[in-house]
Amino acid sequence: MAIKYAKKSNIILFIVFSIIKSLQVVFIANLVKVITNYAVQPKGSLLQVAIVATVGLLLFLFAGIAHEYFSDLIIKDINVEIKRLSSKYLIYQAKQEQKLDTSFFTNDVKQIETSKILSELDAITNVLQFAAAIIAALFGSIVLTIVYLVVSAIPGLVQRIFTKKIEGKSQIWAEQNSTYTNIVKDSELISPTARLYDVEGNIWHRFKRAAVSLEESLFQMNFLRDISNRSVETSAFLFSNILPSILGVILVTRGEISLGILFMIDNLANQFINPVVNFFYDLNDISAANPMWQKFLGTTKRRLSGVKDSMNTTLEDQQFRQLNLINVTVKYNQKTVIKNLNLQIKRGEKILLTAPSGWGKSTLLNILTGEQEIASGEFKIDGMNLAGNWQQAHRYFSFIHQTPLLLDESLRFNITLGYNASDGEVLEAIKSAGLDDLVDQIGLDSTIGEEGSRLSGGQRQRVEIARALLRNRPILIADEPTSSLDEGLARRIQGVILNTNKTVIEVAHRVSPAEAKLFDRIINLDELAE
């Protein structure tokens, strides 16, 4: 249940005020009984009844407000916890078995809130209201109450017919929703290119197809849920209202109960019917949200690797002498991607790795950082086998991406990512990366815009380099760092990367003859593996 992620004190107070709220129907039913009996045989004071009714309803009003307050508080607590745990999984977990994307953090989380958390809280309230109504009715007529109680189980049997089908439709909707979200992002990125080549219509139709598929799957899920709800509602009114009411009239005519008792139980019957109907509505909503909830649970069942407070992480100075790949083979779904690769790199070397497109260069980089398991062979650093050992292997490497990964944050944060680095260490990395002029212009604490939009292409790449140098790790991996830069800027960036005391492993499709001279060795990976 989702409510287990809320604070226990809030759950207890929610249940307490739910119980008080549920007693309101009992209070009103008894007022109906007193007033009806007074109409049949005047006895007592109607003014006293009115005063009691007014005071009582005011007290229930305050209890209802408290009930809603703790309900909203529990929803907030659970939403925060869901986002906290799932975002932790997204950011910390190197090997993600459960894929989380933008769709999950927007649409799926909202679906969990509206269809699961709210429904669980409503289900608790409905159960308590049903129990209060049953107990109160038993004091009026045991026979009539037992009849109401027995027939109220029938809507539950009706609801069970639809549960699995609703979950199936919900799963389809969740998949379509994820696809639609990705296409929205793709369409935004590709639209300038589409306009350039006069193919806007193709991209638009692709978007529309995804939207239609999404809405069709949502329609199918909602329609099936509506059929279930209406079927439950009809069976509830037939078996939990009409038939017991007929029995009640028979008992009155026989003199076994008074008219006031019948009206009281009939009034309470709404609290037999409505909570039962609403309870099964809640179950349908919970079923609809189950695929999204299971996705969230998938992020909590796996122990996160290497979870620590990065704000307090110190800068590394890892020792390194030699890296070896020995007869390394990698497979994806039984397909061999890399076969019998042998590679040796020594401390301080500047190595350029080249290979044709599709060779598996990204896979090789993932092996080095410990993210990729190998089918056979060995990956060693200083004699220690690190194949698939993310926790240990990644600490040897800094990484410069082909496309700089930047946040809409300050220049300082983009370089440190929250590391506990001194201004001196940050400024040293900035100087080594050639960012002095930028810092002089905007300072360290100015935001650089979404994806570094306020910086030039060269400045964005230098921010990546400064980030890599700051960590003071012995091996610097550069994944085609100059492929999108002009020749002059590419040569300057190469000079920054190679003019360090680090071991450099750069991957590229091609480099200019001038750039090639900057490396100690150029290794064609296609010649090293079978």
TrEMBL record:
Gene3D superfamilies: ABC transporter type 1, transmembrane domain, P-loop containing nucleotide triphosphate hydrolases
Span of domain ABC transporter: 323-528
Domain ABC transmembrane type-1 stretches: 11-288
Coiled coil: none
Main location per the UniProt record: membrane
PROSITE patterns: ABC_TM1F (PS50929), ABC_TRANSPORTER_1 (PS00211), ABC_TRANSPORTER_2 (PS50893)
InterPro entries: AAA+_ATPase (IPR003593), ABC1_TM_dom (IPR011527), ABC1_TM_sf (IPR036640), ABC_transporter-like_ATP-bd (IPR003439), ABC_transporter-like_CS (IPR017871), P-loop_NTPase (IPR027417), Type_1_exporter (IPR039421)
Membrane topology of the entry: Multi-pass membrane protein
Top-rank taxon: Bacteria
Assigned keywords, A-Z: ATP-binding, Membrane, Nucleotide-binding, Transmembrane, Transmembrane helix
Membrane spanning residue stretches: 12-32, 44-66, 127-151
PANTHER family: ATP-BINDING CASSETTE SUB-FAMILY B, ATP-BINDING CASSETTE SUB-FAMILY B MEMBER 6
Protein name: ABC transporter
